[in-house]
Design a protein that fits this description.
Strand order of the largest sheet: 6-5-4-3-2-1-13-12-11-10-9-8-7
Low-confidence stretches: 1-10, 12-63
CATH superfamily: Lipoprotein localisation LolA/LolB/LppX
CATH topology: outer membrane lipoprotein receptor (LolB), chain A
CATH architecture: Clam
CATH class: Mainly Beta
Largest sheet: 13 strands, antiparallel
Helix content: 10-25%
Mean pLDDT: 81
Shape: globular
Number of strands: 13
Distance between the termini: 28 Å
Number of domains: 1
Order of helices and strands: HHHHEEEEEEHHEEEEEEE
């Protein structure tokens, strides 16, 4: 039998690792209004023709549209986020928000800390259930909650955490997922999106859905490893807003066969000073 509070929080912790990597610079403050419709990056006519992604003329069949290559798709994604230079300026970030699982009638708070090159810490606090913590310090992955206590990650679970904790995930996509192929163009919540299949070394294929107009990531499908099972996971990213020149998804929605939840991020800061000890696994009591 699944322990609902622990399972929901564990899923939230895992989802926050990948691919939510973006945050705002400067002091914590209310974030700007959401980006309603981000235009695609400007493309020269010859470049568009060579890539096969020029907008079809009126009446032209969509079926004749040529799919972008994986490298073209990723390049447009990075440009849509704000560009390589802007992403490289970020060395750490703190994200805070509201956690909600409506069906389970659970509301709590979420906090995520990330730092270069591969450190991650996430905490979900749910009234009457306590804290659910998951972290990676560059070598060791661990979790802690009131029911199971302190637990060290091992095997494939640790490898998944290690891969997902890479700070500049977007810029290292090819390194993290050596096998890439564009599968198709599908509709995601009424908008066209290109589907990229990405396979890590020794891992299962994952799917990333990029909006065909804004080129931003809108969905990520993967399999989450828990101590007792493998669970197919669907994550959706929306409510993008420009913050310090970088597009940030402020709404994360999660769906799997057991539960649905969402986190609305309300406070995001970057290049903040973080205590390295916070990422490290504490000594057993």
């Amino acid at each position: 039998m699944i322990n609902r509070p622990r399972y929901v929080a564990a899923c939230c912790l895992f989802a926050a690792v990948s691919p939510l990597r973006l945050a705002a610079a400067g002091p914590a403050a209310p974030l700007p209004a959401p980006l309603q419709s981000a235009p695609p990056p400007a493309q020269a006519e010859n470049s568009a023709k060579q890539s096969g992604t020029e907008t079809p003329a009126p009446g032209k069949q969509a079926a004749t549209e040529q799919a972008p290559t994986p490298d073209q798709l990723l390049a447009r994604y990075i440009r849509a986020l704000g560009g390589e230079a802007a992403l490289k300026k970020i060395t750490s970030r703190r994200m805070k928000g509201k956690f909600e699982a409506p069906i389970q009638q659970m509301i709590g708070e979420a906090e995520i800390l990330t730092a270069s090159p591969d450190r991650f810490y996430s905490r979900v606090t749910i009234p009457d259930q306590g804290e659910f913590i998951s972290a990676f310090d560059g070598k060791a992955g661990w979790s802690r909650d009131s029911r199971n206590g302190l637990r060290e990650m091992k095997g494939q679970e640790l490898e998944n955490m290690r891969r997902s904790s890479q700070f500049q995930h977007e810029l290292r996509f090819r390194e993290i997922f050596p096998q890439l192929r564009v599968l198709e163009k599908s509709l995601e919540e009424g908008r066209p999106a290109w589907v990229l299949e990405a396979t890590p070394p020794g891992g299962s294929p994952e799917k990333f859905y990029f909006d065909a107009e804004s080129w931003l990531l809108v969905r990520h499908d993967s399999v989450q490893l828990t101590p007792n099972s493998e669970v197919p996971i669907e994550h959706r990213y929306s409510d993008y807003a420009p913050v310090d020149g970088v597009q940030v998804p402020r709404l994360l929605r999660h769906k799997d066969p057991n539960v649905e939840w969402q986190v609305t991020f309300t406070e995001i800061t970057q290049n903040v000073s973080l205590d390295a000890a916070q990422f490290s696994m504490p000594a057993a009591p």
